[in-house]
Design brief:
The complex is a heterodimer. By secondary structure, chain A is mainly alpha-helical. Chain A has 10 helices and no strands. Chain A has 2 domains: 30 residues; 215 residues, MetI-like (MetI-like fold, Orthogonal Bundle). Chain A is globular. In chain B, helix 2 packs parallel to helix 4. The chains are: A mainly alpha, B alpha/beta.
């Protein structure tokens, strides 16, 4: 069964991924031994040791929940609002024209500009929500707008001739077409959300966030802490990406209902 | 009665239809024949409302139309049976019976992107036949079917048109004869 979503499946097998991670860790360990300065480059063994200490602290999990909640909120808002605007702009060309300067500016503006601007507008606690939103929204809007513009016109003509209901057009024509776009957009956007969200936290330093702990690590020259928090962010980003990808595939299969409701 | 009066249509300054006129009685089967590129599909698309003529008048086209397009235009991610359900709101047991008549039994729940070209064509034909329509437009519907299947499917179409109006575009006069076309229009 070849669904269009599978076109976007990563081709590297799990076995090869494990081998490449192992090699990368060995290379990292060798460099750490070669440099022999834990301020400049801490070894993966030391990072693992520090991480195993951190995971047993309350602050670690509170920081994760603080950052995760805000980044996911900003990301979800951007996906929802980006999708709504893309649908409206697809229907009314004027909306796309009016949004064009904002989208172009948002795409070109450096993350730090957004962060500083958001610091002026908002409290440090809500800073990452708006920062993530401003980074993810233009990506979602552009990709979904592009997807909607490339829906097969011949299928839409068929739907017109057979007078298919709007709900069926959405389910049978639009969703199968835009799902791969949503999948790839989400994959790219989730990584960018963490980068922008944590950057906002490092600059805004909301108390108890991952970013504030990273800033402290920098202040106290604790490279092991910095690497441990970075590893945490990578793991969270990957976990979230996997969960979203799984959820999207599940939704897609439910929408397609390939087995059909047998009588 | 469906009337096309003095229809003109050009694409990029290329005149495809020049004062084309056609009258079709309700319940009649009409075959439009002619060489490729002479506007047969354009006539069907104008009747279906997919393209507008440059000038001329069209009257009597019913509201409910079903069509076999030149391409299959199926929902490739969906099963054969769901293709019919979602476009025609037909009953699944009826669809299964129709699938049997065109030799698609056992394939009902498989996604159409796993079907061969001929099988996809048959789904497109079943879809047009099963839709609750008053007018059936068939644009080279039997293209790509092997001889045996073609004969079976032409008979299926003939037996299931009922008293609906049917317009078929074809290059093969035998198809028009089996479908008992009352008019043969040469463009």
């Amino acid at each position: 069964m070849k669904h269009s979503m599978q076109k976007y499946k990563n081709n590297i097998s799990l076995k090869h991924k494990i081998i490449s991670i192992a090699i990368a860790l060995i290379v990292w360990q060798l460099f750490a031994i070669l440099i022999n300065n834990k301020l400049l480059l801490v070894s993966p063994i030391k990072v693992t040791e520090r991480l195993s200490q951190l995971i047993f602290t309350r602050e670690y999990w509170l920081a994760i929940s603080f950052s995760l909640l805000r980044i996911v909120l900003g990301f979800t808002l951007a996906i929802a609002i980006g999708l709504i605007f893309a649908v409206i702009a697809n229907k009314y060309k004027i909306v796309d024209i009016l949004l064009w300067p904002y989208i172009t500016a948002m795409k070109a503006t450096p993350v730090t500009s957004f962060i500083i601007l958001c610091l002026i507008w908002l409290s440090t606690k809500t800073l990452s929500i708006l920062t993530v939103f401003l980074i993810v929204f233009p990506i979602v809007y552009s990709n979904i707008f592009e997807a909607l513009n490339t829906v097969d016109i011949k299928l839409l003509e068929m739907a017109n001739v057979f007078k298919m209901k709007l709900s069926k057009r959405i389910r049978c024509i639009y969703i199968p077409h835009i799902m791969p776009f949503i999948n790839s957009t989400v994959t790219v956007a989730i990584g960018m959300s963490w980068k922008a969200g944590v950057a906002a936290e490092v600059i805004g330093m909301p108390r108890g966030s991952i970013g504030s702990f990273m800033y402290e690590a920098k202040l106290y020259l604790s490279t092991a802490d910095l690497f441990a928090w970075t590893a945490t962010i990578i793991a969270l980003s990957m976990l979230l990406e996997r969960l979203l990808s799984f959820f999207l595939k599940l939704t897609y299969k439910k929408v397609i209902n390939l087995k059909g409701d047998k009588l | 009665m469906i009337k096309l009066i003095n229809i003109n249509k050009s694409f990029d300054n290329l005149k495809v239809l020049n004062s084309f006129t056609l009258n079709i009685e309700n319940g009649e089967t009409v075959a439009i024949m002619g060489k490729s590129g002479e506007g047969k599909t354009t006539v069907l698309n104008i009747i279906a409302g997919l393209i507008k003529p440059d000038s001329g008048e069209i009257t009597g086209v019913p509201q409910n139309i079903s069509m076999v397009f030149q391409e299959n235009r199926l929902l490739n991610e969906f099963s054969g049976i769901d293709n019919i359900v979602h476009t025609c709101n037909a009953n699944k047991s009826d669809i299964k019976n129709h699938f049997k008549l065109v030799g698609l039994e056992g394939w009902e729940y498989k996604p159409v992107n796993e079907y061969s070209g001929g099988m996809k064509r048959r789904v497109a034909i079943v879809r047009a036949i099963m839709a609750k329509s008053d007018l059936i437009l068939l644009d080279e519907p039997f293209k790509g079917l092997d001889a045996d299947t073609k004969f079976k499917v032409i008979n299926y179409v003939r037996d299931n048109i009922g008293n609906r109006t049917c317009i078929i575009v074809t290059h093969d006069i035998s198809e028009a004869n089996i479908l008992k076309a009352k008019q043969l229009i040469n463009i």
